[in-house]
Structure prediction request, 304 residues.
Amino acid sequence: MNLDARAARRHAGAILRRLLGRNPTRVERLGGGLSNHVFAARMGRDQLVLRLNPEPGKVKDFLKEQWAMAQAREAGVPVPEVLEVGAAPLPFMVLKSVPGDMAIHHPERRGVLEALGRNARLIHGIRTEGFGQTFDWSHNRLSRRDTWRDYLRREYRGAERLALLRRHAMLPVATARKLRQTLEALEKMEVQPSLNHGDLRLKNVIVSGGGEIRAILDWEFCTSHAAPWWDLSLALHDLSVDAKEALLRGYGMGPAELREAAPVLRLFNTLNYAQAVEHAASLRDDVALEWLRARLHGALDLYV
Prediction:
């Protein structure tokens, strides 16, 4: 279902009027992510954020976020306060706005990354049941992956991702062999699931002027997973070497533990490219495929 900006703004105003019994003073579009429309609204002294999505099934993701943020708040992680989640006329979530700035623009990002690492450790201390997108927040049973091996094979589809990368010559033979061995060993491990944010990057962090984290945002990709492998494989991906070290220091992971975790971090980081490769192949974008091939063959790795 398509929803243009003007229609989304009308829906946002109508939802707020229905919930609060009066017209908001102002409804201002903030943009959004891949699929959400996001608005700021002022109701008296309160500053609110409303997120809309035109897809009916999105309400499940909003409910998952609401559950995860409540658990994170109890664990001491700074998160926005969710005021309402609903499905009519469109799936929506209303939150209290958190004052501050996006951490990606803060000059002292190293300190922010260390604090983000400490918060990641708190998030990973939240135990969950099941693996993948369907876990404690949902009462569904048929779609829940009760075992780690079942998740890796049926939901994450690790072997299929690896086969796709090999089919498009994205990996050197030796690298593909190591990844397959790591995946096979991983499937045999006994893993305790825990909450993972799924996108622990500076763009999802609000900080004060002094660099204190005021809120970790955007929990839509949160999942029940193996910690710290999943979150760290995503969080470290975009960072410089020094920034990676800062986040890991905050997390409490030393060099020896990092070396032990590195094969699994590399596995997830590499297999997560399967979707981008598949998309580029479907468009027959040979230039994009060559750049992906260069990246996954290690041409951008500047260390021995």
About this structure: The mean pLDDT is 94.
